[in-house]
Design brief:
By secondary structure, the chain is α+β, with helices and mostly antiparallel strands. It is built from four helices and nine strands. A hairpin with a 4-residue loop joins β1 (8-9) and β2 (14-19).
Length: 126
């Protein structure tokens, strides 16, 4: 399983790449495998400010719909435009082209509460 060391993870299977006060967010390789073929992503929260763990959108797979949770509080400044026509990018490249949103963090220290790659691996391997 692919778990890049430079990312932070949540118990809800989101990841965050922190670059200064901006976080790029998506779902993990584990999550996309559990969901199966992703057919639709709905993110209607661009330009909204949400708290950590609030729902920022949903991802729809063939067999289920899943909420997407904010790993960090902040203003959603961008969503990945490629996902509108190609939601399967999340299955193909969850940590690259399949990113979901960019967030201007309100409190970057919230990242300290997220899991490292090793901690996330321990969580999913139970």
């Amino acid at each position: 399983m692919n778990l890049p060391e430079n990312l932070k993870y949540t118990k809800d299977h989101e990841w965050a790449l922190i670059e200064g006060d901006i976080a790029i967010i998506g779902i993990t390789d584990f999550a996309q495998k559990e969901l199966g073929d992703i057919v639709f992503v709905e993110i209607e929260t661009v330009d909204e400010t949400l708290a950590q763990e609030e729902i920022f959108g949903t991802v729809e797979a063939v067999k289920t719909v899943s909420d997407l949770f904010m790993p960090l509080g902040g203003e959603i400044i961008e969503k990945n435009p490629a996902l509108e026509d190609s939601p399967e990018l999340i299955n193909k490249d969850p940590y690259g082209e399949g990113w979901m949103i960019k967030v201007k963090m309100l409190n970057p220290s919230e990242a300290n509460n997220l899991l490292s790659a090793a901690e996330y691996k321990a969580l999913i391997e139970g």
